[in-house]
Specification:
This protein has 978 residues and is α/β, with parallel strands linked by helices. 48% of the residues lie in helices and 12% in strands. Among the domains are: 211 residues, 3-Layer(aba) Sandwich (Rossmann fold), CATH 3.40.50.10190; 191 residues, Reverse transcriptase/Diguanylate cyclase domain (Alpha-Beta Plaits); 118 residues, Dna Ligase, domain 1; 109 residues, no CATH class. It binds a DNA duplex (13 and 17 nucleotides) through helix 15, helix 16, helix 17, strand 7 and helix 24.
Length: 978
DNA sequence: CCGGTGTGGTAGC
DNA sequence: CATCGCTACCACACCGG
C-alpha cells in the first residue's frame, strides 16, 4: 500500500483527467457497486471506515479493490467502467488479432496500475501456458481468459492446430470432444483459480477432467444424424415436414455438451413447437381469431355493422370428422380409411410407445380407442392399428379451404372455434317458410363443397343457439348433419353431461360426489334437468351453477358475433407452456431457458405490436413421491404447479426484461432445478406499443437531450406509475452482438458485454449526467474532495442529498436500436393514497408461504405432511404460519430496531444491482433472509445477532431461520458452481 | 364492495 | 428406442382495504 501523500494523489488526479465524462461517472458508479458487492471484505471497506484509517486515502481505496482482483467474485462483478470497456472491445475482436489485443490490454492495465500507484509487477503463474476453454464454464470463459493473461499466460479462442494449446479448460466433454482432446491436458476451471490463489501453477493432473457422466448419460441419443436421413426416406412421403427433419445433423454439431434434444438444447423450443400438436392447435386458433377479428373490423369500417335482427337465430356448427386422421390419410391411398383403424401419432406404431394419439378414425373408436390415448394402450385395444404421421401443413391447407368456403357463403357471422371447426350464424340466409328444407339444403351443399375441395368429410350441426348446435353436431357425426329445431328437452335428456361445453372431468366428478352419490352410471343432462337452480349454484358457484342449469334446459345466450363485441374477442394474454422435455441440472440452465422462452413470447408481442405489463411464471414441479422419470418419455409426470406474477412499471416487449422477471419469479417460487418438469410464461395486461411509449413519457423522453431525473411525486401523482416502477426490475440490454456468441457466454457476461456495447454506442447525452448523491457520499472523504473539484471543472452536477423519506430507484431502459434511457425515480417510501400495487405480488402471502412451507417442511417432516389430505395439510401449514407470526425472535427485533430497511421484494431496486453483478452473486441476492437479500446487510445482521446472543445463546428459531437461509445458499452453490 | 393474486378447469386433435 | 402433455380464457377462493 502506498502511503498517503501528494504524489500518488496527484497521479490519481492525472488519471482522472484522462477520462471522458461518462467514463468518470462510470468509475464512480462502479465503486458504488463494488461497495455493495456482497463479499464481507468489500462491505467492510466501506462501512467501517473509521476502523481502517488507511482508507482515507483515495489510492488505498482503489487499491483495496484491486487487491480483490484475483477473487472470482470481483472479476465476475459488475463492469468496471473503463477496465471492462477495454476488455469488452477486446473480446469482440477476431481471433487473429487476439495476441495483439491481449498485449494491449496488459499494457493498458499496467499503465492503469501505474497511474493508480499500484504495484505493476506482472504475475507469471501461467507463463508458458496456452489455454483454451471448451464449452460452458464457471467462472466464464471471459473471466478465465482475463485471469490467464493477467498472470502471464496466453489464451486462444480456437484450437487452430493440434498442440496449439497446452491446457484445455472444461467442465464437461462430449464423448466426441473427449476423443478429440485425449492428448491435451484437460482440466477443470478450479485449476486456474487455485493456481492464482496459491500463487503458483498447480499440478494439472489434480484437476484433470477425466470421465464425466454427463456425456455418457446422453450416449443413447448419439448418431441420430447418421441414421436418420436414410430411415426417413424409407418412410412414407414426408416432403411437407421436411424442414423439421433436416436440422438433425446440425443439431448434433452445434451442441456443445450433449446430443440430446431436451430442454437444455438451444433448439429445443423450435423442435418442440414444430412437433407439438397442441401447440399448433392453440396457435392456429389464436391466429384465426385474430384474423377474423381484423376482418370484421375492416368490414364494419366500410359498411357498418348490420345487427342480425332475426328473432330466431340459426346457428351452424361445422367440423371435420377426425380431422388429423382424415387429412393424414389423404397421403395414403393404400389405406381403406372407412374400414381400417387409423390414427395419428409420433414415432410409428411401436407397442411400447408412449406417444399420444392425436386423432383416430371411427373404426378405431369402435375398439375404444380415444384421442389423447397412448399408442401403447390403443395397440392393446386394437392390434391392427395403423399410425400415421402428422401432416401439419396438410391440416393448414384443409383449414384454409374450409374457411374460404364458409366465407363464400356470406353468413351473418363466423366464429372460428379451431383449425377445423367453426360456428356460423345464417339466420338471414333462411326464410321463415320451409325452414327445415332450406337448412337441410344448406347443409348438404356445404358438406358437398367441402368434400370436393378437401376430400375430407365434415359434419354439420344446426340449431337456434350455440349449445344446441354443438350438441347437434355430436349427433350428426360422423359424416352427417342434424338440424335440431324442436323437442329440445327431450333431445337433451339422454345425453351425458360431459357433452355440455365447459363440463369436463372435474365438474362431472363433483356432480357424482356431491349431487348424485348413489348414481352408478354416467350422469345425463336429464338428471340435471330435475335439479333446482339454487342447488347447482350452491355446489358450483353462481356462474357455473347457472350455466349448468340453463344448459340442461337448452338455454344458451352465447354470442358468436365478433362484431357485436370486438372487445370480448381481442387477445388478453399471451403464453407459452412447455411441460414436456423439461430436464435441468442447474439454475443457470433454467435461466437460459427462461430467456429463450421470453424471446418467443416477445416475438409474439412484437408481432401484435403489443407490450405487456404483467408477467406470470408457472412451473410444474415433480410431486413428492412421483418417480423421477415418469412413464411417458420426457413427460412431466405427476406434478404440483406453482405460479407467481409480477408487474412491470414500464410495459415492455423486450425479452430481456421479461426474461429477467421470469428468472426472479423462478427464484421466488423456489424450485430445485432437478425437480422442474414444466415451465410456462404468460404475459397479461397487454398495452398497445404506442400507448406504452406515452406511458413512459412522464419519466423521460427516449431521446431526452439531458438528464432524466424526476421527482415521482411531482409528476402525475394521480397515476400509480411511480409505484409500479419501484416494484419492478427492468434492466434491458441491447442485442447488438452476434447471438451465437452470446449464447456461448454465461448470462452475466453476456449482460455486461451488452451493457458495455450499449454504452459504447449510445450518444453521451443519453447517459445520466448526475451522480447520485448517496453514491457520492459513501465514498471516502478525500476521494469526494477530489471528485468534487474534478466534477466542478467539468460542470457536472452532483445530485442533491436525497431526503430521508424518499427512495431512489433506477430504471434503466434500453431500446432496440441501442439508445438508452436511465431513469432515476425518487419516490416516497410509502406509496401515497391509492396504490393498487402497493405491495408487489409477494408482500405477504405468496413468497412467504412458499418459503415458510420449506421451513416447516424441513421441520415437521415433509413426507408426512405431503401424504396428508390437502385440506388438513393446509390447516397445519396455516397453523404454523400463525405460530411463526406470534413468535418474534431476536432476528425480528434486530431487524425492526436496526436500520435495515425492509427490502420488500427482490423485485425492487436492489435486484437491479444484483442482476448486473456476477451470476452467482445475483443468485445469492435473490435469496431472501429476514426481508433483505443484500449479503452485506445479512452479514451485518448476523454479526449483530452473534454479538447479542454470545452469552445467552441464540433463540432456536433464529438458528433455524439462519440454517434455512444457509441451505438455500447451498442449493444454489451446488447448482451454480463448478 | 372493490380489486388483487393464485389456482384450477376447459376446449380443440 | 422413445417423444414433442398447448394455450387462451373463465371462474373461483382467498386476502386486504
Amino acid at each position: 500500500m502506498s502511503q498517503d501523500g501528494g504524489p500518488s494523489e496527484s497521479s490519481f488526479r492525472d488519471y482522472m483527467s484522462t477520462l471522458e465524462d461518462d467514463e468518470l461517472i462510470e468509475l464512480i458508479t462502479s465503486w458504488s457497486q463494488k461497495r455493495k458487492a456482497s463479499s464481507p471484505k468489500a462491505a467492510d471497506i466501506n462501512t467501517n471506515d473509521a476502523d481502517q484509517p488507511s482508507h482515507s486515502s483515495s489510492l488505498s481505496f482503489q487499491l483495496a479493490q484491486e487487491d480483490n482482483e484475483e477473487s472470482v467474485d470481483d472479476l465476475g462483478g459488475d463492469d468496471k467502467g473503463p477496465i471492462f470497456g477495454d476488455y469488452a472491445s477486446y473480446f469482440a475482436t477476431k481471433a487473429q488479432n487476439q495476441q495483439i489485443e491481449d498485449e494491449k490490454f496488459l499494457e493498458w492495465n499496467k499503465k492503469r496500475q501505474q497511474v493508480q500507484g499500484q504495484d505493476t509487477k506482472v504475475s507469471s503463474i501461467f507463463t508458458g501456458c496456452v489455454v483454451h476453454v471448451n464449452g460452458y464454464t464457471r467462472p466464464s470463459i471471459a473471466t478465465i481468459h482475463k485471469l490467464i493473461i493477467l498472470n502471464g499466460g496466453k489464451f486462444i479462442h480456437h484450437l487452430s492446430s493440434k498442440g496449439a494449446a497446452t491446457h484445455i479448460i472444461a467442465e464437461r466433454l462430449t464423448p466426441r470432444k473427449q476423443a478429440e482432446f485425449k492428448n491435451y491436458k484437460v482440466v477443470r476451471p478450479q485449476w486456474v483459480l487455485d493456481s492464482i490463489e496459491r500463487g503458483s501453477l498447480q499440478r494439472w493432473s489434480d484437476y484433470s477432467l477425466i470421465e464425466v457422466d454427463y456425456g455418457q448419460q446422453r450416449l443413447q441419443f448419439r448418431n441420430e444424424d447418421q441414421t436418420n436421413p436414410h430411415a426417413k426416406q424409407d418412410d412414407e412421403d414426408e416432403s411437407e415436414i421436411g424442414p423439421s427433419t433436416e436440422p438433425m445433423s446440425e443439431i448434433v454439431d452445434t451442441t456443445d455438451g450433449t446430443t440430446t434434444i431436451d430442454s437444455k438444447h438451444p433448439d429445443f423450443l423450435k423442435q418442440f413447437f414444430a412437433k407439438s400438436r397442441l401447440h399448433h392447435l392453440s396457435t392456429w386458433k389464436a391466429d384465426l381469431r385474430l384474423e377474423f377479428l381484423n376482418m370484421v373490423i375492416e368490414q364494419s369500417k366500410s359498411q357498418g355493422h348490420m345487427p342480425t335482427g332475426a328473432s330466431h337465430r340459426i346457428i351452424v356448427h361445422v367440423d371435420f370428422d377426425c380431422f388429423f386422421a382424415t387429412v393424414s390419410a389423404l397421403k395414403r391411398p393404400d389405406i381403406d380409411f372407412q374400414n381400417q383403424p387409423v390414427c395419428v401419432s409420433h414415432g410409428g406404431t411401436k407397442p411400447g410407445s408412449t406417444a399420444d394419439i392425436a386423432s383416430c378414425n371411427y373404426v378405431c373408436r369402435k375398439y375404444g380407442v380415444k384421442n389423447g390415448m397412448w399408442v401403447r394402450q390403443a395397440k392393446k385395444l386394437c392390434p391392427d392399428l395403423i399410425c400415421l404421421d402428422y401432416d401439419f401443413l396438410g391440416y393448414e391447407t384443409a383449414s384454409k379451404k374450409l374457411y374460404e368456403i364458409l366465407l363464400g357463403l356470406k353468413p351473418d357471422c363466423i366464429l372460428p372455434v379451431s383449425i377445423d371447426e367453426a360456428l356460423l350464424e345464417i339466420s338471414s340466409l333462411i326464410d321463415d317458410e320451409n325452414t327445415v328444407e332450406q337448412v337441410q339444403g344448406f347443409c348438404e351443399s356445404l358438406r358437398r363443397e367441402i368434400y370436393e375441395q378437401t376430400r375430407c368429410t365434415v359434419s354439420v350441426g344446426v340449431s337456434h343457439n350455440v349449445l344446441l348446435a354443438k350438441l347437434s353436431l355430436r349427433k350428426a357425426k360422423p359424416n352427417g348433419y342434424f338440424y335440431l329445431h324442436e323437442n329440445f328437452e327431450e333431445f337433451l335428456h339422454n345425453i351425458p353431461v360431459s357433452s355440455l361445453p365447459g363440463v369436463g372431468g372435474a365438474i362431472v366428478n363433483k356432480l357424482i360426489s356431491q349431487v348424485f352419490p348413489h348414481s352408478s352410471s354416467e350422469i345425463t343432462i336429464g338428471e340435471i334437468q330435475g335439479l333446482e337452480r339454487a342447488n347447482l349454484e350452491k355446489v358450483f358457484g353462481v356462474k357455473t351453477g347457472t350455466k349448468l342449469f340453463e344448459y340442461a334446459h337448452g338455454i344458451d345466450h352465447t354470442s358468436i358475433d365478433i362484431n357485436s363485441n370486438p372487445e370480448a374477442f381481442t387477445r388478453k394474454s399471451i403464453s407459452i407452456d412447455i411441460n414436456w422435455g423439461i430436464r435441468f441440472d442447474s439454475i443457470a440452465q433454467i435461466d437460459e431457458f427462461l430467456f429463450r422462452v421470453s424471446e418467443e413470447i416477445c416475438n409474439k408481442l412484437q408481432l401484435m405490436k403489443m407490450c405487456t405489463s404483467q408477467v406470470t411464471l408457472k412451473i410444474l414441479k415433480r410431486s413428492k413421491g412421483a418417480p423421477i422419470e415418469p412413464p411417458k418419455f420426457l413427460g412431466c409426470g405427476q406434478c404440483d404447479s406453482f405460479s407467481k406474477s409480477s408487474r412491470l412499471g414500464i410495459p415492455s416487449d423486450d425479452y430481456r426484461t421479461i426474461g429477467m422477471e421470469a428468472r426472479i419469479l423462478f427464484r421466488n417460487i423456489g424450485c430445485d432445478p432437478l425437480e422442474l418438469r414444466g415451465v410456462s410464461i404468460q404475459v397479461t395486461k397487454l398495452i398497445e406499443k404506442g400507448k406504452e411509449v406515452q406511458m413512459r413519457l412522464p419519466f423521460a423522453r427516449l431521446d431526452a437531450p439531458k438528464t432524466a431525473r424526476l421527482e415521482g411525486k411531482e409528476q402525475h401523482s394521480d397515476t400509480p406509475m411511480e409505484d409500479k416502477s419501484m416494484e419492478t426490475t427492468q434492466l434491458e440490454i441491447p442485442s447488438e452482438l452476434d447471438s451465437s456468441v452470446l449464447r456461448e457466454l454465461p448470462s452475466s457476461i453476456e449482460k455486461r458485454i451488452d451493457a458495455q456495447r450499449q454504452r459504447d454506442k449510445a450518444p453521451i447525452v443519453d447517459l445520466p449526467r448526475d451522480i447520485d448523491a448517496q453514491v457520492f457520499e459513501q465514498l471516502p472523504p478525500s476521494i469526494q474532495e477530489e471528485l468534487r473539484s474534478e466534477l466542478r471543472r467539468r460542470n457536472i452536477t452532483i445530485g442533491e442529498r436525497t431526503p430521508k423519506r424518499k427512495r431512489v430507484y433506477y430504471q434503466q431502459v434500453f431500446t432496440r436500436t441501442g439508445a438508452s434511457e436511465v431513469i432515476r425515480i425518487i419516490s416516497p417510501r410509502k406509496s401515497p393514497s391509492k396504490s393498487p400495487l402497493k405491495k408487489s405480488p409477494t408482500k405477504k402471502s405468496p413468497v412467504k408461504d412458499v418459503k415458510r412451507r420449506e421451513t416447516k417442511v424441513a421441520k415437521v417432516d415433509e413426507d408426512v405432511l405431503n401424504e396428508l389430505p390437502p385440506s388438513l395439510r393446509k390447516e397445519i401449514l396455516e397453523e404454523w404460519d400463525e405460530y411463526e407470526r406470534t413468535n418474534m425472535t431476536e432476528f425480528d427485533r434486530l431487524r425492526e430496531r436496526g436500520k435495515l430497511p425492509e427490502t420488500k421484494f427482490h423485485n425492487s431496486a436492489n435486484s437491479i444491482e444484483s442482476l448486473v453483478m456476477d451470476d452467482f452473486e445475483c443468485k445469492i441476492n435473490l435469496i431472501m433472509f429476514q426481508k433483505t437479500s443484500q449479503p452485506s446487510k445479512i452479514i451485518k445482521l448476523v454479526d449483530r445477532w452473534m454479538k447479542k446472543t454470545v452469552e445467552k445463546g441464540p433463540h432456536h428459531r433464529d438458528l433455524e431461520l439462519f440454517q434455512t437461509y444457509l441451505s438455500k445458499l447451498n442449493i444454489i452453490a451446488i447448482h451454480c458452481m463448478p
